[in-house]
Amino acid sequence: MPRRRITQTDVAAMAGVSQATVSFVLNGSTPAGVRISEETRQRVLDAIRITGYTANPAAQRLAGGLAQILGVFTYEATFPRASRDFYGPFLTGIEHAAERLGVDILLFTSAPVADGRRRLTREGWQRLGVADGCLLLGQHEHRGELQHLLDTNYPFVFIGKRGSDGGRLPYVGADYVGGTVRQIDRLVAHGHRRIGYVGLRGTDQPTLDRVEGYRTAMKTHGLTTRFVELEDVAATADEILDQRFTAVVVAPENHPEELADELERRGRSVPGDVSVLLLGQPHHPRRGGRDWSGFSVPREEMGARALYLLSRLVADDEPRRDRDGRRPAAVTDAELHQVLVCPDVAGATVAAAAPGPDAP
Amino acid sequence: MPRRRITQTDVAAMAGVSQATVSFVLNGSTPAGVRISEETRQRVLDAIRITGYTANPAAQRLAGGLAQILGVFTYEATFPRASRDFYGPFLTGIEHAAERLGVDILLFTSAPVADGRRRLTREGWQRLGVADGCLLLGQHEHRGELQHLLDTNYPFVFIGKRGSDGGRLPYVGADYVGGTVRQIDRLVAHGHRRIGYVGLRGTDQPTLDRVEGYRTAMKTHGLTTRFVELEDVAATADEILDQRFTAVVVAPENHPEELADELERRGRSVPGDVSVLLLGQPHHPRRGGRDWSGFSVPREEMGARALYLLSRLVADDEPRRDRDGRRPAAVTDAELHQVLVCPDVAGATVAAAAPGPDAP
DNA sequence: TCAATCAGATGATGCGCATTATTAGCAACC
DNA sequence: GGTTGCTAATAATGCGCATCATCTGATTGA
């Protein structure tokens, strides 16, 4: 086992060439009129094989190359793991993809927290530089920081749809709209007509998309949209009964478990009297919690797809060719904004509508 | 927003000093006979504050400094989060500690897998270098690789006790011995006398420790140790009844859930007829699974403590002082090998022994 | 008065790599 | 025979930082 690390210079010496030649061979060469004969190339490759040379990522990065390190930054105040039920799956997907890509993952756990959200400023900028590109997680992004990333042409990909910014931000999101539409379809197929939307107004993308999906689907079926502002769970339960809903859709962050409890406390059964569909997975799966019907967000896949996309963007940035001298195909606009299907979850909180006043 | 990154040279220019001076100020200076006046120091610090300068980790690392990056390597074939019930909590703890320390975490997801376990060789060595030190996870470490780490004096810490290697390997483990002893104590306190150990023979540390704990405790109480080799769950259930055990202890990887099912299928209740104590948490918590009694492994804390220890080791390696000119205290032997208490879990699978032939 | 000491800093160097500019050798052409 | 053109490579440079060796000017000691 060698004491000192093996460098390109060592390899060069063994192959009887210059360090530069080794670098060219490793990078598929040909930046400008540089040519390496096939024979020399082979000699270098042999030397690399024999010595077991591997590039020092720090040096690569410093010299303006790629380090095969991709970063993960989050805007949440505490690193995603803490809210592990929600963020864990993203990271699992990211790690799987990283293994496939042969890339290391750098978690920016050091970024300072200000105003309850993590910032990229100051400390952040430089640290980002160790990674070839970065995945961005969490709702509360900071516009100025994003602008800087765009300005400096630093490759990044959002996890979660970003509609706000006219197509400049690459992202991999989930199709909350489509998922919600299908839930309404489902309810209608079960004979429901009075279907309420329970939730908080919000400007976050998932909420906007759920509302849009609800609106669209209700309109399609010629039904009236009815929103119930969630303030107090008990009050909301009363309202649901007052309005004689036979079904409601609700986002997972809006305490569906407690809501169902309240309904049952009022002598109604879920789904016997009221069907409840969840627009996403439960955030904090309770021991012995209900088996919710609704749709699920493909979080692992989102993580993985985001990393793949990021790696493509990084490759695009680097004007380097593969060994056939061709550049990989450029990233298309379609790739830049991916929205993944949210599969339906059968569950046990949906049933046929009780025949009510609106029944035929 | 500056286009080009701010370097020490920029800061130096602003403060009217040389780049070297800036570096000295940042590192608490004084490598050899170098002195910086308080006034100059302040000027440099001001310039840093104004420019918002931050060190480029790649450059720091290349120049032999610290990058404030700590690595996580695993010997498992797939990266830990994938088997997230077991490994997830370690990473949670690690991330929390990283936030506290202001350090980024590098996951070595790129390390190649050979023979079903991940290796550090070739690819690995150089990549490790980006991090100031590294946490090691998983059972199947490779001796040669460890030796190399020791030889090159690369700072690392194992998560999980490492007894095999006479105190040369730093680790943060869990006290399986003590935890197991207490479970036996618990059973004895409940009047149990015929207490079996169900499990597979294994040479992994946790298994060795559980067996040791069982042996010790049984001896202390003057009871006979009885091991049931787990081959087939059904056969094991039969054996438990044959031997008229009133209680068994079992490791979580040995299918406790199925075992209890088998017992109940035979008309025995858990814990009514047979108490079952789990020596650790369930590996794959089942929906609606039993509420196991036993002990839990403080995995998050292990992760966090391991990272703290690693950071101390790294600091120790670097002959650098803090701003008062003192070196932090060296790592003691006690710190080098930490074993954390495994708290008891009350649970619902333990009850008083049914009066049997051994009863008074 | 001249050497010795010391505070306070700076210049130069190298870490390992990517990349640009340059060179050496040789065949072809006028 | 000199110039052009081409292939095949190398020398040199810089990325940003840590660090070693060195330098300057002031103060002290004899």
Automatic annotation (TrEMBL), chains A, B:
Entries under CDD domains matching the protein: HTH_LacI, PBP1_LacI_sugar_binding-like
Domain HTH lacI-type: from-to ranges: 6-64
One function term, GO molecular function aspect: DNA-binding transcription factor activity
Residue ranges of the TM segments: none
Superkingdom field: Bacteria
HTH cro/C1-type domain residues: 3-30
Family annotation (PROSITE patterns): HTH_CROC1, HTH_LACI_2
Record-linked InterPro entries: Cro/C1-type_HTH (IPR001387), HTH_LacI (IPR000843), LacI/GalR-like_sensor (IPR046335), Lambda_DNA-bd_dom_sf (IPR010982), Peripla_BP_I (IPR028082)
Keywords, ordered alphabetically: DNA-binding, Repressor, Transcription, Transcription regulation
Name this protein carries in UniProt: Transcriptional regulator, LacI family
